[in-house]
Amino acid sequence: MAKLWDKGYAVHALIEKFTVGNDWELDRNIITSDCVASAAHAEMLKSIGILEDKEKENLLTGLSNIIKKAEAGEFPLTIEAEDCHTAIEQYLTENCGDAGKKIHTGRSRNDQVQTALRVWMRDFLFACIESAVKLVDSVAGFAGIHAMIPMPGRTHMQIAMPSSIGLWAGAYAEELGDEIVHLLSIFELIDQCPLGSAASYGVPLPLNREMTAELLGFKKVQNNVLYANNSRGKFEAMVTDGLDYVCLTLSKIAQDLILYSMPEFGYFSLPKELCTGSSIMPQKKNPDVLELIRSRSAQVSACSVQIKNIIRSLPSGYNRDFQDTKEPFLTAAFSAYHSIEVMKVCFEQLEVHPDTLRAAFTPEIFATDKAIDAVLSGKSFRDAYKAVGTDPESVIAGNPDLVIGTRTSTGTTGNLMLEKVLEENREHARYIQRKREDVETAVINLIGKKVTFFSP
After folding, report:
1. Residue 387: which domain range?
2. 203 contacts: CB under 8 Å, gap ≥ 6
3. For residue 340, what is the domain's CATH number?
4. DSSP annotation of 4
5. Does some domain include residue 247?
6. Within a domain: residue 338?
7. What is the pLDDT of residues 28-83, one digit of tens each?
8. In whole angstroms, how far apart are CA 112 and each of 40, 86, 100, 125, 195?
9. Residues classed as catalytic
10. Are residues 371 and 316 in the same domain?
11. Burial class (CB in 10 A: 0-12, 13-18, 19+), 398
12. What is the per-residue pLDDT across 206-262, written as a single tens digit (0 to 9) for each?
């Protein structure tokens, strides 16, 4: 199979293996997005007289056939082709004749790859944000159901003050909600089309970049053609950074659940269906899924750093180093998405043990409450603090169910404001749904059917 840059000589086998790597295998993820971007490019080439109408129609038919084959897992990719872009052009040339040789007019593999990845990234963010919204619903719902079940609050891992399951879970619901806002802001940033920037410097043709951006459902053209190239890797890093923050939260939740489901605590337990076993110890039911969420969080974070380190010192213009940002980006994307999905299942099936939680309320946890009682009787807080601190044995246990209800200021155990969290979450869901529908409409208008770019 001829390469897109073919000049009549064969590359040394070792060099080919080293320069191509596993890029051709990774490209299975972006076959459909490349075909859709190529369809928009073909429409634009027709509009400026590069393609005849019949040639354009043949190309659109060919691209549609490739999408069908890719969806069925039947579109072949090989190392000889280097990537899906070569394989697609080869197919079009074999099936559409000279029209297939014209499809690359006005673009480089640089902006071709950029556009295919940008289309994929956009669809991935739709799916990821929608999944995160559902997770927030699950966590906030869990907080609501168990809102008034007491739970010891801890600092430095030591008993601190009365808290509740509602406060603990509600905290994570709000944290994840803020991280959805962050992902939405990243989506707005990457929602710009690099197609037509070619090899960083444009081409001497009257390309209608606004037309292709609109056909693909992008909010705008990524204006400066050199910046369009220079943003490769950087936009992937921004998305991965956003995922990293989500996964940091998931890792913290996982650690809490691992700790609090230990027999020594017994606050929670995972059903056996979510646990795995030991090959030697018959009694074991291990929270491996939570341990792997911790690990995948580290993986996402490492991928973020890897991408930034690859692009950190590159000169402007295209450099082959960009190729090596694809694997860590895709690794992070899939790891983060699956971690979100798994955590949702954990919250939906997490078992709470109220009696054990109440039994964990030792007298010392009421020390601050005793000091506050003294303040309400007229004593200064510092004097009350000292009196309790120098005589901790004087603190007697209170009723944890009653105590958590006495905290009524905003965001405390007696006033969680969960409906506000859920309403913000619903607004996030409505917003991303509108964005997804706009893009789906554009793609349907372009190729005649709905397609999925990100397939978890």
Report:
1. 363-397
2. 106, 107
3. 1.20.200.10
4. T
5. yes
6. yes
7. 999 999 999 999 999 999 999 999 999 999 999 999 999 999 999 999 888 776 78
8. 11, 11, 15, 20, 7
9. 156, 278
10. no
11. middle
12. 999 999 999 999 999 999 999 999 999 999 999 999 999 999 999 999 999 999 999
